[in-house]
Amino acid sequence: MTYKSVVRKLSVSTLGAVMMMGSSFTGAVTAAGETKLSATASASTYDTRCTCGPAQAVDGSLSTRWSGDGNGAWLKLDLGSTKTVAFVKMAFHNGSSRTSNFDIQTSTDNTNWSTRLSNVNSAQNNNLQTFDFTDVSARYVRIVGHGNSVNTWNSYNEVEVWGAGSSTGGGGGGTGTLDPSKAPSGNFDLTKWKITLPNASEVQPSTLSNGYTHSEWFYTDPVTGGMVFMSPNLASTTTNSTYPRSELREMLNPSAGTTSLGNNWVTSTSSSSTKSQAGGVDGTMKATLTVDRVSISGDSSKLGRVVVGQIHGPETEPIRLYFHKRPSDSKGAIYFGTDDLSNKNTYVNILGGPSNLNPSNGIALGQKWSYEIKVVGLQMTVKVTPEGGSTTTVNYTLPSGYNDKYLYYKAGVYNQNNTDTTSDKSDHVKATFYSLTHVHP
Q1: What mean pLDDT value characterizes the chain?
Q2: Across residues 273-285, what is the average pLDDT?
Q3: Which of 24, 102, 110, 412 is the least buried, fewest Cβ under 10 Å from its Cβ?
């Protein structure tokens, strides 16, 4: 089984219902390119002591519910016609104090049913939870309940069926709408990037920008057209790292050589002679992305960590932008690490931090968000914006030792977990980029 093929099999549902944002009932296109499908509901039974019929599970309100007693009681959603079904979102009555157990089944004819997820346990919270499975054509989706951790009732505040839709990527380096049929270079300008893969090999700009893909580690999302990066926990690493990556490295003038000033950029507070030789002076990198999966096994101190953007120098890193979400967390923290010239690291909080994980204003798996990393002289500004949310801005002054040092941006996934205790050693991280630009005014 390839790593790409296990992305859904090791997704939020089968790993204990990792949380996603659950505030929208409008049918808007999600970061992953799916949209909520209209559905009518019926049920095998319901609680007549309250207004708890099947319609209350699809009314867009988390304050109403369907309730049916007994092992095997089911709630069925009819989509009206056969459609591509990608995942189901559910919120559970008294979800913060108990867990529910159930199966998810699909059918095209309302007679022959296939089980997509079996014996699933919900997470213990009151929010919408996402239960993912391999995309399938179906008209009917049925939730077969097996009670909860307190009693035999099956009570769902809301059930949503989501399927593949169309999406624009917010500008893939100036290309506008992303085309799922194209290689990443067909949607993004990759002429000034190379990529390092989890086998420690590199693909140079001339090849990368000419339609290169890798079926497991670097490819175009078939629904959204986003640029997908994946890195397993256990893989080869580059010379000075102990962690694997699928990550772009900026190359402003590839023919000049990787470590030359002409292939990189410098701060505007550098000397005039250094600036005259550099490929750029100061810089801004912007990206819009979703972190779709983080590691869930191995060393507890390394769980759920991934770097999605960097500025790198000759030996140290002015910034490593982290997304960090443990399996028990509903949201990931966003923070950065920054090195001085002696390689001493300092962590800086943005949305939570390494000592403040699972922040209430954090980013969920699959939630679209944007970052901007800008350097003018020694002033570094980092902005993080959840889609539809407010921007958090952090300003940081870099040490003067970074003057006259060559610098370059990196973007993708730099897996910060090199341990794996899954049975098939398939643990990995994955992110999808919907836009990526880098400029050096």
Answers
A1: 89
A2: 96
A3: 110
pTM over 0.70? The answer is: no
| pLDDT over 50 at 304, yes or no | yes
- Residue 416 to residues 115, 215, 438: CA-CA distances in angstroms? 35, 22, 24
Cα dist. 402→141, 267, 337, 355 in Å? 57, 8, 16, 27
Q: pLDDT grade, residue 183 (50/70/90)?
A: very high
d(CA 206, CA 254): 9
- Three-state DSSP class for residue 24: coil
> Within 13 Å of residue 363, how many CA atoms lie on the same side as its CB?
35
pLDDT of residue 164: 61
AA letter at 299: D
Angstrom CA distances, 385 to 27, 124, 159, 370, stand at 22, 28, 28, 5
How far is 80 from 371, CA to CA, in rounded Å? 40
Least confident of 23-27, 32-36, 264-268, 284-288: 23-27
- Residue 382: exposed, middle, or buried by beta-carbon count in 10 A (0-12, 13-18, 19+)? buried
Q: What DSSP letter does each residue of 233-269 carry, written as one string? A: SSS---TT-SS-EEEEEE-SSGGG-TTSGGGSEE-TT
Q: Which helix (H) or strand (E) holds 153?
A: strand 153-164
Cβ(334)–Cβ(364) under 8 Å?
A: no
First to last CA, the chain: 46
